[in-house]
Amino acid sequence: MDRQTELLDVFPAFVDEAGEARREFYVDGLHLNDAGYDRLTKLLAPSIFRMIGTRD
């Protein structure tokens, strides 16, 4: 992996204690709904802003 690559494990934020998809974040258990995309954005934003050198 190079210095420009960062891996973020967001899986735990979308599953319950049993590892099952949390229904409130999915349309069908696979594809994210609006709430899922909102959560994903909040998880990714800090890393993205850090990488591009800005902060919102």
List the keywords.
56 residues; mainly alpha; 1 helix; 34% helix; 0% strand
Model description:
The protein is mainly alpha-helical and 56 residues long. The chain contains 1 helix and no strands. It is elongated, with a radius of gyration of 13 Å. The model has no long low-confidence stretch (mean pLDDT 91).
Quick gist of this model?
The chain is mostly helical and 56 residues long. It is 34% helix and 0% strand.
Following the backbone from N to C, one meets helices and strands in this order, namely H
Helix proportion? 25-40%
The count of helical stretches stands at: 1
Radius of gyration: 13 Å
Major beta-sheet overview: none
Poorly predicted runs of 5 or more residues: none
Overall geometric form: elongated
DSSP, total strands:
0
Mean pLDDT, as a whole number? 91
Distance between the termini: 28 Å
Strand content: under 5%
Helix/strand/pairing category: mainly alpha
Would you spell out the secondary-structure blueprint of this structure?
Elements: H1 34-52
